[in-house]
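User: Predict the structure for this protein chain, please.
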Amino acid sequence: MILQVPVARYIPTNAYFYIDEDTKHGFLIDPGAEPDKLLEIVKERGFQLEKILLTHGHFDHIGAVNDLQQALKIPVLMQKNGRSYAKNPVWNLSAQTDEPITLEDVTYLADNTDIVLEANPDFRLHMIPVPGHTTDGCMYYNLRDHVAFVGDSIFAGSYGRTDMPGGDTETLLKSIVREIFSLPDSTALLSGHSGATTVAAEKVRDWYQGIAAE
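Assistant: Here is the predicted structure, written as structure tokens:
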């Protein structure tokens, strides 16, 4: 089961619960804000969260992490380059707000790591690096469910900004083509700031057709 929850402190962001319906155990992806709202959902639905997964280290994706980790006592995982963002409010952009954020207790993942649910080892996500929006950008992919949680790498009809620390347009576009567009066309792409789309839908967008023609 996938539950999309809009959360906002400064910027509206999609947080996602990815839950095994048989055990009600699962993962929370990109809890950017409103920890009390997310905890209430956990309580009401009877979810047992095993891990928090981050697609990248910007403040609007990590804003609720410290409160949730304190309440739930679960690991926080992000791509190995995430240390630059977790430890530095300038890089994670929270220095621009009145609430600078640092994350202390983080597990940094090697590329192409499988994140396996302890309650059901058949329920898992595969972490694939998608740098360019940030140096630590990644997606979490499940072949069985035909879904990828893509953060801010790609949206419905556009792709992520690259004018912030660690961003690079050429790197992002190459990452999208190499990693995201190599997934099956039917794969649902669930992003941080747009509605759902698919690989097939994004391959025919004007922004990509211009790249493909080069």
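The mean pLDDT is 96.
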